[in-house]
UniProtKB/TrEMBL annotation:
It comes from Polymorphum gilvum (strain LMG 25793 / CGMCC 1.9160 / SL003B-26A1). The lineage of its organism: Bacteria, Pseudomonadati, Pseudomonadota, Alphaproteobacteria, Rhodobacterales. C-type cytochrome. Part of the cbb3-type cytochrome c oxidase complex. Binds 2 heme C groups per subunit. Pathway: Energy metabolism; oxidative phosphorylation. This is Cbb3-type cytochrome c oxidase subunit. PROSITE patterns: CYTC. Its cofactor is heme c. It comes from the Bacteria. Belongs to the CcoP / FixP family.
Length: 292
């Protein structure tokens, strides 16, 4: 509260003081700038107008709707519905179009890439990584090593039905557990692992009979992986000469896989994602550059 008894006029400025003094400094009672006052008054008028025109006053169970009856929530929902309708229209075009048509039609391609990018981040990135480079046990989708094929149709089929997913149309290619089930003994596993390693450009274990390893390979592995080790996509047998191995490229990793293979599972996205989104994902993944 201002002490009116201590007010005085400042000799230097000629302005009355407020009566407040701190360490010998006296506060001058200068009026506020008129422009500032006008702006302040304008904000008050604006606020009153806003209260009248727009929803603002809370009531017990609702709120005042305002003269205009405007609702930002209603506007947002209308915009969302309009966007979903537009998305559904373009999405329906994807459902009816072939994958090659989607890739060659700029409008559908743009939509498929945007839709696929979002779907990949939500559904695929947790396993394959945000950059689709994979990790141990999860394929790198940017290289050219495709166990089940890397064409648009191949990728679409894998996405739709999955791998060992339990779907009736799922891709299934189980490798026998040669060691665990007693199909090969330890020496034979050592031999075939070193033989495969040597053919894949790795250093085999010293002292291992590679000729015996070749015999073990031809008798037990060539029917799926081929005599040239290039694999067979029809049964999901990977190319053993490829640069990348799903579970590690070393003699020890090869031994482990021959002994008790890890047969990974990919979910079937049919029924989880709509057909347009699955096609979008196929186009998006194929565009990484590793697709065929």
């Amino acid at each position: 509260m201002t002490d009116t008894h201590n007010k005085e006029v400042d000799a230097l400025s000629g302005v009355e003081t407020t009566g407040h003094e701190w360490d010998g400094l006296k506060e001058l009672n200068n009026p506020l700038p008129k422009w500032w006052l006008y702006v302040f008054y304008a904000t008050i008028v604006w606020a009153i107008g806003y209260w009248i025109v727009y929803p603002s006053w809370p009531l017990l169970t609702t709120y005042t709707a305002g003269v205009l009856g405007n609702s930002q929530r209603a506007d947002a929902l209308a915009a969302l519905e309009a966007g979903m309708a537009e998305r559904a229209q373009i999405g329906s075009a994807l459902v009816d179009a072939s994958l090659d048509d989607i890739r060659s039609t700029q409008g559908m391609l743009d939509f498929a890439m945007a839709n696929g990018r979002a779907a990949f981040g939500d559904n695929c990135a947790p396993c394959h990584g945000s950059g689709a480079t994979g990790s141990l046990g999860y394929p790198n989708l940017q290289d050219d090593a495709w166990i089940w094929g890397g064409t648009l149709d191949d990728i679409h089929t894998t996405l739709k039905y999955g791998i060992r997913s339990g779907h009736d149309e799922a891709r299934i290619g189980d490798m026998p557990a040669f060691g665990r089930d007693g199909l090969l003994d330890k020496d034979e596993i050592d031999q075939v692992a070193s033989y495969v390693a040597a053919q894949a450009g790795l250093e085999p274990e010293a002292g291992v009979d590679l000729a015996a390893g070749e015999t073990v390979y031809l008798d037990n592995c060539a029917s799926c992986h081929g005599e040239d080790l290039k694999g067979m996509r029809e049964v999901g047998a990977p190319d053993l000469t490829a640069a990348n191995y799903l579970y590690g490229k070393s003699v020890a990793a090869i031994k482990a896989q021959v002994n008790a293979p890890r047969n990974g599972v990919m979910p079937a996205w049919e029924g989880r994602l709509d057909p347009a989104t699955i096609k979008s994902l196929a186009v998006y993944v194929h565009a990484f550059g590793g697709g065929e």
